[in-house]
Design a protein that fits this description.
With 378 residues, this protein is α+β, with helices and mostly antiparallel strands. The chain contains 17 helices and 11 strands. It starts with a helix and ends with a helix.
Length: 378
């Protein structure tokens, strides 16, 4: 029955874009011996009881007894190998979530991790930590921006031990700077109650909500601009099949009014933004669009500078394009950019936006785990 409850609560949050977009977020259920955790690259919106990876908790616990290499690549490869080895027989075709270790150390039967734009309005804000401490005094933990995977799990493990030593209990809400939130409880209903409290509490402090309601499939010269982007991408890498998605709404118009306005969403807020929308969106001004060959030259220069064709292209006064090798990936790029816009607006209530550091963004870009997640979600 508990696995059925896990699937139900996974679909409950996974099917709601206010909490989860694309393949983001993860959930788990545990008993004394086993942890059942979301498989990497799968969607919470479609979760079924058989979709979770069954992990041996004894094997996971022994990971903490090991010493891993100092280098990030070697460390993460070794930890991943040990996590894969902790799968019970018959689970070999599933890959456990990168957050598996974190799920296992939280002393709750059910754990739900999501990335709501509303919550990230505070976790991706300059005054986020102080605001969270004030709003959730005595029952939450704030984790500074940290390399995901093993290091994040170790950081949370140590912070929880310190919290327990000081207060004699453990927090059921964990805010991760530039990432999202974990909530844990011993029943699915209690997890939902926690999330309701989180969303209502933060929502009560919002001074301006994002205006993203007016969505148009095309606008002005968006069709011709899109065709030029497709041709430019194909010319750069020789790949004929590129796809675009487009969105324009009042908030996107505001952030694409000019280069200065675009600075507010020009860098990633969270790992999901990097995985699905890219860490270096391209901004093209209106004059470049109007000039012959301007779009192609702009895309070429940006690609040479960053090393890859941008997943997200914003055009001054027009809107934002997702540019990718599949329709789904192009659509996800637009969805995650729109999410970043919402995060930027919500962050205004907590001191303004705080982007991921360049080091953290570089780690995500080069991390095999996130490359796998991006590839499988195409």
């Amino acid at each position: 029955m508990s696995l059925q409850e896990l699937a139900e609560i996974s679909r409950f949050y996974g099917s709601n874009p206010d909490y989860v977009i694309a393949g983001g977020g993860n959930t788990s259920f545990k008993d004394r011996d086993y942890l059942y955790v979301k498989a990497s690259g799968t969607s919470l919106a479609d979760a079924r009881p058989g979709d979770f990876v069954k992990m041996d908790r004894g094997s996971l616990a022994r990971i903490w007894e090991k010493t891993y290499p100092a280098g990030a690549d070697a460390r993460e490869a070794a930890v991943l190998a040990d996590m894969m080895a902790a799968r019970v027989p018959g689970e070999e075709n599933k890959r456990p979530s990168v957050e598996t270790l974190l799920h296992d150390i939280l002393p709750f039967t059910f754990v739900v991790h999501t990335h709501p734009a509303l919550v990230n309005g505070i976790t991706c804000a300059r005054n986020g930590e102080a605001s969270a401490a004030e709003l959730f005094a005595g029952g939450s933990l704030w984790i500074p921006s940290t390399t995901p995977g093993y290091i994040l799990s170790k950081t949370v493990k140590d912070a929880m031990a310190d919290y327990r030593a000081k207060k004699g209990t453990v927090p059921d809400i964990i805010f991760l700077q530039n990432h999202g939130v974990f909530a844990g409880a011993d029943t699915a209903g209690s997890v939902k109650a926690l999330y309701d409290r989180i969303m209502n509490t933060i929502g009560g402090k919002i001074t301006r909500t994002p205006d993203t309601g007016e969505k148009l499939a095309s606008f002005g010269n968006s069709d011709s601009t899109g065709r030029e982007l497709l041709a430019a991408a194909a010319a750069i890498d020789g790949q004929a099949r590129w796809f675009i998605a487009f969105e324009r709404n009042p908030e996107i118009v505001r952030f694409t009014a000019d280069k200065n306005a675009f600075e507010g969403v020009s860098r990633p807020f969270s790992p999901d933004h990097i995985v699905y929308a890219g860490s270096a969106p391209l901004f093209i001004n209106a004059g470049t669009v109007e000039s012959a060959g301007g779009i192609r030259e702009s895309l070429k220069k940006h690609t040479e500078k960053t090393g890859s064709i941008p997943k997200t292209v914003a055009v001054q006064g027009l809107g934002v394009f997702g540019l990718a090798g599949s329709e789904n990936a192009a659509a996800n790029a637009v969805r995650l950019f729109n999410d970043a816009v919402k995060v930027a607006v919500y962050s205004e209530s907590f001191g303004g936006p705080l982007f991921m550091s360049s080091d953290q963004a570089a780690f995500i870009n080069n991390w095999e785990v996130e490359r796998y997640r991006s590839k499988i979600s195409q």
